[in-house]
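Chapter summary example: a protein plus adenosine monophosphate.
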Amino acid sequence: MDNMFNKVTLREMVLKGKRVLLRVDFNVPLNSNLQITNDKRIRETLPTINYLIERQAKIIIISHLGRPDGKVMPEFSLKPVAEYLRVALKKPILLANDVAGPETYKYVRSMKEGDIVMMENLRFDPRETMNDPEFAKELAGVADLYCNDAFGTMHREHTSISKIAEFLPSCIGFLVEKELQILGHAITDPKRPFVVIIGGAKIKDKITLISRMIDVADVVLIGGAMAYTFLRAQGYNMGRSIVEKDKVQLARLLLEKAKTQGTKIVLPTDHIATGEFNFAAESATVSTKKFPRTAMGMDIGPATIRAFKHYISKASTVLWNGPLGVAEFQKFAKGTNQIAEALADAKAFTIVGGGDSAKVIEQLNLQDKINHVSTGGGAMLKLLEGTELPGLKNISNK
Ligand code: AMP
């Protein structure tokens, strides 16, 4: 596990004149006019691309975008990304119309040092998601080296993520290095007190994460729908709130484990509750102890927000994943937004990850006040859980 954080990087490779196959995660959101609506994942790979340009490598960029399911679909073309890169890097970018096909080969043959060629969307080929050795060989065939800087996809057993490294000398890029350093440090040697905030809908998806955070954190604050299952495990009736009945026993075991290990688990003492799941539903603040039988929890309440803020203000490291209420509905986004603001104001080293939480940080324009907003959702969770990421397993340690 610890070896996961000590991988060979671009700094250890001889790059001049070498064809470098650079796997990035340019799976960015596009609007109906195919314009990029969030460029974070591209921006975060620019240090790697610029380094390769400076070191006079020949750069061949590969990425997926969306889910074209193995078919060529123009709406999933990487054209908008190539256009973005032309502007950001002030360089011509040749986008081949195929994936390791004749046009890719033609462009690569004509490359000079510092040039950039991109292949089309990897997922236009059905073999991308199959971890296919033949496809991996075809991709590897165009290059001398492979560099993985696609942190957001590192948890996938996909050809361009975990297979290619079997066929080429391989390393990680600077975005992956940064993510591994920061997240790795948080779970192996955090500055204490270490406070972890976990929200979201289902315990099922985050059991391993919660269990592991009980091992490494000092305090775990739990919000979102999953808190109701924990409260049920403590004997409270949570009315019509989402309770995962088949996970109540597991929640009880996790609470016991925390007690044995001296990790504090803090659950909501009050809630914003409604009679129906609706964005405009009438709501009231109710306590955990007197939760009405007909009510449904939609957000954490004011006393819980105060308690969570207190722990955040005392922390030296804070890690947050998952919304604390139904944050898609403005009316029930208060708990989530207030916790985001508290992180921005905290003196602690702050880390945020997961699609929903990272989106809230962007919406509130707090990204400059958070130490690290991870580019990975699933990949970050897997890494924190201690799972070996498929994207790292074939890359050597330093
Ligand atoms: P996850 O993907 O597990 O991080 O869960 C995110 C989802 O949890 C969001 O769609 C939220 O709307 C949902 N969620 C958070 N709190 C609640 C709640 N009290 N009731 C229902 N859904 C919730």
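Key point: The longest strand covers residues 19-23.
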